[in-house]
Protein backbone atom coordinates (compact mmCIF):
# COMPACT_ATOMS: atom_id res chain seq x y z
CA UNK A 1 0.00 0.00 0.00
CA UNK A 2 1.44 3.38 -0.98
CA UNK A 3 2.35 5.68 1.88
CA UNK A 4 0.44 8.95 2.09
CA UNK A 5 2.74 11.92 1.59
CA UNK A 6 3.18 13.84 4.81
CA UNK A 7 1.99 17.43 4.59
CA UNK A 8 4.36 20.29 5.25
CA UNK A 9 3.48 22.63 8.12
CA UNK A 10 2.48 25.37 5.67
CA UNK A 11 0.06 22.98 3.92
CA UNK A 12 -1.96 22.04 6.99
CA UNK A 13 -4.14 25.17 7.20
CA UNK A 14 -4.15 28.75 5.84
CA UNK A 15 -3.14 29.98 9.31
CA UNK A 16 -0.10 27.69 9.21
CA UNK A 17 0.79 29.06 5.78
CA UNK A 18 0.59 32.63 7.10
CA UNK A 19 2.83 31.70 10.05
CA UNK A 20 5.37 30.10 7.69
CA UNK A 21 5.43 33.24 5.53
CA UNK A 22 6.06 35.50 8.53
CA UNK A 23 8.89 33.21 9.62
CA UNK A 24 10.53 33.50 6.19
CA UNK A 25 10.16 37.30 6.21
CA UNK A 26 11.83 37.48 9.64
CA UNK A 27 14.70 35.20 8.55
CA UNK A 28 15.33 37.34 5.45
CA UNK A 29 15.55 40.47 7.61
CA UNK A 30 18.16 38.70 9.72
CA UNK A 31 20.15 37.63 6.64
CA UNK A 32 20.05 41.17 5.26
CA UNK A 33 21.50 42.55 8.50
CA UNK A 34 24.18 39.87 8.58
CA UNK A 35 25.23 40.02 4.90
CA UNK A 36 25.44 43.85 4.68
CA UNK A 37 24.95 43.94 0.91
CA UNK A 38 25.91 47.26 -0.79
CA UNK A 39 22.40 47.98 -2.06
CA UNK A 40 21.90 50.64 -4.73
CA UNK A 41 19.91 53.61 -3.36
CA UNK A 42 20.89 56.68 -5.43
CA UNK A 43 18.20 58.12 -7.69
CA UNK A 44 19.40 60.35 -10.54
CA UNK A 45 16.99 62.23 -12.79
CA UNK A 46 19.53 62.81 -15.55
CA UNK A 47 19.78 59.84 -17.91
CA UNK A 48 23.09 58.08 -18.46
CA UNK A 49 24.01 58.51 -22.15
CA UNK A 50 24.16 54.91 -23.47
CA UNK A 51 21.04 52.78 -23.96
CA UNK A 52 21.91 49.13 -23.26
CA UNK A 53 18.44 47.62 -23.69
CA UNK A 54 14.79 48.63 -23.48
CA UNK A 55 11.53 46.74 -23.17
CA UNK A 56 7.84 47.61 -23.32
CA UNK A 57 4.98 45.60 -21.79
CA UNK A 58 1.23 46.06 -22.19
CA UNK A 59 -0.03 45.57 -18.64
CA UNK A 60 -3.78 45.06 -19.13
CA UNK A 61 -5.00 41.76 -20.51
CA UNK A 62 -8.60 41.70 -21.71
CA UNK A 63 -9.74 38.16 -22.48
CA UNK A 64 -12.50 35.69 -21.54
CA UNK A 65 -12.01 34.40 -18.00
CA UNK A 66 -9.55 37.15 -17.06
CA UNK A 67 -10.53 39.33 -14.08
CA UNK A 68 -10.33 42.84 -15.53
CA UNK A 69 -10.34 44.52 -12.12
CA UNK A 70 -7.29 42.51 -11.10
CA UNK A 71 -5.62 43.60 -14.35
CA UNK A 72 -6.35 47.26 -13.64
CA UNK A 73 -5.13 46.83 -10.06
CA UNK A 74 -1.95 45.23 -11.37
CA UNK A 75 -1.23 48.35 -13.39
CA UNK A 76 -1.65 50.50 -10.24
CA UNK A 77 0.70 48.22 -8.30
CA UNK A 78 3.35 48.28 -11.01
CA UNK A 79 3.19 52.08 -11.32
CA UNK A 80 3.71 52.50 -7.55
CA UNK A 81 6.70 50.16 -7.49
CA UNK A 82 8.21 51.56 -10.71
CA UNK A 83 8.22 55.04 -9.20
CA UNK A 84 10.54 53.78 -6.44
CA UNK A 85 13.22 52.62 -8.88
CA UNK A 86 12.95 55.05 -11.78
CA UNK A 87 16.39 56.63 -12.23
CA UNK A 88 18.16 54.25 -9.84
CA UNK A 89 21.96 54.27 -10.25
CA UNK A 90 24.07 51.17 -9.60
CA UNK A 91 27.72 52.00 -9.09
CA UNK A 92 30.29 49.23 -9.73
CA UNK A 93 29.85 46.52 -7.08
CA UNK A 94 26.41 47.68 -5.95
CA UNK A 95 23.42 45.32 -5.78
CA UNK A 96 19.83 45.89 -6.85
CA UNK A 97 17.26 44.29 -4.56
CA UNK A 98 13.62 44.50 -5.63
CA UNK A 99 12.31 44.52 -2.06
CA UNK A 100 14.99 46.81 -0.65
CA UNK A 101 14.02 49.31 -3.34
CA UNK A 102 10.24 48.92 -3.30
CA UNK A 103 9.67 48.23 0.40
CA UNK A 104 6.69 46.49 1.97
CA UNK A 105 3.49 46.43 -0.08
CA UNK A 106 0.39 47.38 1.90
CA UNK A 107 -3.07 48.88 1.34
CA UNK A 108 -1.94 52.00 3.22
CA UNK A 109 0.72 52.57 0.57
CA UNK A 110 -1.87 52.37 -2.20
CA UNK A 111 -1.35 48.78 -3.36
CA UNK A 112 -4.39 46.85 -4.54
CA UNK A 113 -5.47 43.25 -4.85
CA UNK A 114 -4.22 41.45 -7.96
CA UNK A 115 -3.39 38.00 -9.21
CA UNK A 116 -0.63 36.07 -7.44
CA UNK A 117 0.60 32.49 -7.28
CA UNK A 118 0.47 30.94 -3.81
CA UNK A 119 1.20 27.27 -3.16
CA UNK A 120 1.19 26.66 -6.93
CA UNK A 121 -2.33 28.05 -7.37
CA UNK A 122 -3.57 31.29 -8.89
CA UNK A 123 -5.25 33.47 -6.28
CA UNK A 124 -5.49 37.16 -5.35
CA UNK A 125 -3.60 39.26 -2.82
CA UNK A 126 -2.36 42.80 -2.17
CA UNK A 127 0.35 43.77 -4.64
CA UNK A 128 -0.60 41.13 -7.18
CA UNK A 129 1.00 41.51 -10.61
CA UNK A 130 4.37 42.87 -9.46
CA UNK A 131 6.07 39.79 -10.91
CA UNK A 132 5.41 41.45 -14.31
CA UNK A 133 7.73 44.25 -13.19
CA UNK A 134 10.40 41.95 -11.76
CA UNK A 135 10.39 39.94 -14.95
CA UNK A 136 10.79 43.06 -17.08
CA UNK A 137 13.83 43.97 -14.98
CA UNK A 138 15.16 40.45 -15.42
CA UNK A 139 14.94 40.81 -19.22
CA UNK A 140 16.97 44.03 -19.03
CA UNK A 141 19.68 42.29 -17.01
CA UNK A 142 19.78 39.27 -19.35
CA UNK A 143 20.61 41.68 -22.18
CA UNK A 144 23.62 43.07 -20.30
CA UNK A 145 26.81 41.87 -18.59
CA UNK A 146 25.27 42.46 -15.14
CA UNK A 147 25.10 39.38 -12.89
CA UNK A 148 21.85 38.00 -11.47
CA UNK A 149 22.51 37.01 -7.84
CA UNK A 150 19.01 35.93 -6.78
CA UNK A 151 16.26 34.59 -9.02
CA UNK A 152 13.14 32.51 -8.36
CA UNK A 153 10.85 31.32 -11.12
CA UNK A 154 7.23 30.32 -11.45
CA UNK A 155 5.29 28.96 -14.42
CA UNK A 156 6.12 30.42 -17.83
CA UNK A 157 2.58 29.47 -18.93
CA UNK A 158 0.26 31.66 -16.87
CA UNK A 159 -1.70 32.84 -19.91
CA UNK A 160 -1.86 32.12 -23.66
CA UNK A 161 0.76 33.89 -25.76
CA UNK A 162 -0.47 37.12 -27.33
CA UNK A 163 0.78 37.24 -30.90
CA UNK A 164 4.31 36.05 -31.59
CA UNK A 165 5.90 33.97 -28.84
CA UNK A 166 8.42 35.97 -26.77
CA UNK A 167 10.92 33.58 -25.11
CA UNK A 168 11.03 33.88 -21.33
CA UNK A 169 8.18 36.40 -21.38
CA UNK A 170 7.14 35.53 -17.80
CA UNK A 171 8.35 33.56 -14.83
CA UNK A 172 10.29 35.80 -12.41
CA UNK A 173 8.73 35.15 -9.01
CA UNK A 174 8.88 37.57 -6.06
CA UNK A 175 7.20 37.58 -2.65
CA UNK A 176 7.92 40.08 0.11
CA UNK A 177 10.62 39.82 1.16
CA UNK A 178 11.99 36.31 1.15
CA UNK A 179 11.67 35.72 -2.61
CA UNK A 180 13.70 38.59 -4.02
CA UNK A 181 15.09 39.49 -7.43
CA UNK A 182 18.66 40.77 -7.17
CA UNK A 183 21.51 41.57 -9.50
CA UNK A 184 24.99 43.07 -9.10
CA UNK A 185 26.80 45.63 -11.22
CA UNK A 186 29.92 43.63 -12.03
CA UNK A 187 31.15 46.16 -14.62
CA UNK A 188 33.59 49.07 -14.28
CA UNK A 189 30.98 51.78 -14.89
CA UNK A 190 27.70 53.07 -13.51
CA UNK A 191 24.41 51.71 -14.87
CA UNK A 192 20.91 53.13 -14.47
CA UNK A 193 17.36 51.79 -14.40
CA UNK A 194 14.58 53.86 -15.95
CA UNK A 195 11.12 52.40 -15.30
CA UNK A 196 7.83 54.21 -15.87
CA UNK A 197 4.20 53.71 -16.92
CA UNK A 198 2.23 55.50 -19.60
CA UNK A 199 -1.44 54.58 -19.87
CA UNK A 200 -1.61 50.80 -19.91
CA UNK A 201 2.04 50.28 -20.91
CA UNK A 202 5.13 49.67 -18.81
CA UNK A 203 8.44 50.97 -20.16
CA UNK A 204 11.88 49.98 -18.91
CA UNK A 205 15.41 50.90 -19.94
CA UNK A 206 18.86 49.91 -18.79
CA UNK A 207 21.44 52.64 -19.48
CA UNK A 208 25.18 52.95 -18.94
CA UNK A 209 27.95 55.53 -19.16
CA UNK A 210 29.59 53.84 -22.17
CA UNK A 211 28.68 51.07 -24.64
CA UNK A 212 29.61 47.52 -23.66
CA UNK A 213 31.64 45.40 -26.14
CA UNK A 214 28.87 42.78 -26.41
CA UNK A 215 25.16 42.56 -27.09
CA UNK A 216 22.85 39.73 -26.07
CA UNK A 217 19.98 37.76 -27.63
CA UNK A 218 17.47 35.42 -26.00
CA UNK A 219 16.64 32.40 -28.17
CA UNK A 220 14.31 29.45 -27.57
CA UNK A 221 14.68 25.92 -28.91
CA UNK A 222 12.24 23.02 -28.97
CA UNK A 223 9.19 25.00 -27.84
CA UNK A 224 6.06 22.82 -27.50
CA UNK A 225 3.35 21.67 -25.08
CA UNK A 226 3.06 18.15 -23.67
CA UNK A 227 0.39 16.39 -21.63
CA UNK A 228 1.63 14.82 -18.40
CA UNK A 229 -0.14 13.13 -15.48
CA UNK A 230 -1.41 16.34 -13.88
CA UNK A 231 -2.04 18.42 -17.02
CA UNK A 232 -0.23 20.19 -19.86
CA UNK A 233 3.27 21.67 -19.63
CA UNK A 234 5.18 24.18 -21.76
CA UNK A 235 8.52 22.62 -22.70
CA UNK A 236 11.54 24.43 -24.18
CA UNK A 237 15.17 25.32 -23.66
CA UNK A 238 15.99 29.03 -23.52
CA UNK A 239 19.50 30.33 -24.18
CA UNK A 240 21.34 33.63 -24.01
CA UNK A 241 23.70 34.35 -26.90
CA UNK A 242 26.63 36.74 -26.41
CA UNK A 243 27.52 38.63 -29.60
CA UNK A 244 30.61 40.74 -30.27
CA UNK A 245 29.44 44.27 -31.13
CA UNK A 246 32.24 44.89 -33.65
CA UNK A 247 32.27 41.60 -35.57
CA UNK A 248 28.67 40.45 -35.08
CA UNK A 249 29.98 36.97 -34.23
CA UNK A 250 28.48 34.84 -31.46
CA UNK A 251 31.15 34.39 -28.78
CA UNK A 252 29.06 32.58 -26.18
CA UNK A 253 25.80 30.72 -25.64
CA UNK A 254 24.46 29.72 -22.22
CA UNK A 255 21.34 27.88 -21.09
CA UNK A 256 19.30 30.19 -18.85
CA UNK A 257 16.12 28.11 -18.49
CA UNK A 258 15.32 24.44 -19.02
CA UNK A 259 11.64 25.25 -19.26
CA UNK A 260 9.08 22.81 -17.80
CA UNK A 261 6.15 25.05 -16.86
CA UNK A 262 2.69 23.83 -15.88
CA UNK A 263 -0.04 25.42 -17.99
CA UNK A 264 -2.20 27.56 -15.70
CA UNK A 265 -4.69 28.80 -18.31
CA UNK A 266 -7.57 27.07 -20.13
CA UNK A 267 -5.90 24.13 -21.86
CA UNK A 268 -8.33 24.41 -24.80
CA UNK A 269 -6.47 27.63 -25.73
CA UNK A 270 -3.17 25.80 -26.35
CA UNK A 271 -2.40 25.95 -30.11
CA UNK A 272 -3.01 22.43 -31.43
CA UNK A 273 0.05 22.58 -33.71
CA UNK A 274 2.30 23.00 -30.64
CA UNK A 275 1.06 19.91 -28.79
CA UNK A 276 3.43 16.91 -29.00
CA UNK A 277 3.40 13.46 -27.45
Report on this model:
The protein is α+β, with helices and mostly antiparallel strands and 277 residues long. It has a domain of 175 residues. It contains 5 helices and 14 strands. The radius of gyration is 20 Å and the shape is globular. The model has no long low-confidence stretch (mean pLDDT 89).
State the gist of this model:
By secondary structure, this protein is α+β, with helices and mostly antiparallel strands. The protein has helices spanning 9-12, 14-35, 68-85, 98-102, 130-142, and strands at residues 42-43, 50-58, 88-90, 95-97, 113-118, 121-126, 147-150, 182-184, 191-198, 201-208, 214-228, 231-244, 250-262, 275-276.
Tell me the major beta sheet.
5 strands, antiparallel
Give the ordered list of helices and strands.
HHEEHEEHEEHEEEEEEEE
User: Order of strands side by side in the largest beta sheet?
Assistant: 1-3-9-10-2
Mean pLDDT: 89
Give the helix proportion (percent range): 10-25%
Q: Count of DSSP E strands? A: 14
C-alpha Rg, in Å? 20 Å
List the total number of helices.
5
Q: Which term fits the overall shape?
A: globular
First-last Cα distance: 31 Å
| pLDDT < 50 runs, ≥5 residues | none
By secondary-structure content and strand pairing, the structural class works out as alpha+beta
Amino acid sequence: MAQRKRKLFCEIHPVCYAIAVEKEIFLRHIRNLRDKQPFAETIQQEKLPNLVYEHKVHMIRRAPGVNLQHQLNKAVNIALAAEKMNGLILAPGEVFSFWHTVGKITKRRGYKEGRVIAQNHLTADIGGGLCNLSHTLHLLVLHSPLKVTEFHNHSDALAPDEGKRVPFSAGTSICYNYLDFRFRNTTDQKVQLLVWCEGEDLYAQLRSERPFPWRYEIVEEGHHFRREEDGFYRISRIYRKVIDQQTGKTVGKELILDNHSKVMFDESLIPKELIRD
